[in-house]
Design a protein that fits this description.
Protein name: F420-dependent oxidoreductase-like protein
Keywords: Flavoprotein, FMN, Monooxygenase, Oxidoreductase
Low-confidence stretches: none
Strand content: 15-25%
Helix content: 40-55%
Number of helices: 11
Order of helices and strands: HEHEEHEHHEEEHEHEHHEHEHE
Biased composition (Pro residues): 155-165
InterPro entries: F420_OxRdatse_Rv1855c_pred, Luciferase-like_dom, Luciferase-like_sf, SsuD_RutA_monooxygenase
Number of domains: 1
Radius of gyration: 19 Å
Number of strands: 12
Oligomer: single chain
Structural class: alpha/beta
Shape: globular
Pfam families: Bac_luciferase
Amino acid sequence: MEPRHGARYEEILALALATEEAGFDAFFRSDHLMGVDPNDPSYRPTDCWTTLGGLARDTSRVRLGSLVTPVTFREPGLLAAIVASVDDMSGGRVELGLGTGWYEREHHAFGIPFPARAERFDRLEEQLAVISGLWSGPGFSFAGAHHRIDDNRTPPRPVQRPHPPIIVGGSGPKRTPAIAARFATEFNGALTAAGGAAGLRERFAGFARACETIGRDPADARLSAVLPVACGATQAETARRAAVIGSELMRANAAIGSPAQVVERIGELTDAGADTVYLHIYDIHDLDHIALIGAEVLPHVALSRTGATT
């Protein structure tokens, strides 16, 4: 979920300010260094958490976060410090989405190791344990197969208590909901996986079962989905915005149409159990798109919060 050609910071800031003005509750970035087309020479990579640090100072209201940061990119102790720093810079508006990572070509292009899928899941579980443990206070130690913390007595100190919200999600039926049940403030059901709203409902149910297995009340967690969107006041405007959606899978699960049709599509997700929906915006320069959604969609949806993601 990255702008098709990357972006300069000023372009990302303009979009974040537009979402703030339009009434969105949150602005989230993807954490990628390469676009969908690895041969696109115009792509401009930017570091997710560096730009979020800038947005922390240059925005005033929207919550900020990553959907999602791969565990392969940063060691968990460093990531815990980075997120805590941005949380402080924002006055307590930061959230951390963490996942296994998936884009193998991107890793090779930037010299980042890309372990097998099972190991990436192991690393996700360990990193969540390390990050939440460091945020819990001094004297934290951890010995895992991939990460070790030796009696850290000066841990990162985020502003939010007990710590910034943690988002974990995906379409896996076993390990993903089990890991999320242990660590996540929010479970993201990955709408762009197979099954549409019905599949989303089943993934939420799987997360609830995983919570009950460990004695956690599933109602303690937020439930969210990412919805690609192309909203237009006219058919031509809608078609122009739909044309930049990245893939057939994304288009098949997208909300494409008038404001009323987008409201109806979001309603399907709330009926499936989502209380938070992130609208995935593809053309970051189309600020009129953001304004239209803010004026004609957001007032008509029943959600605890709405976010924009790029």
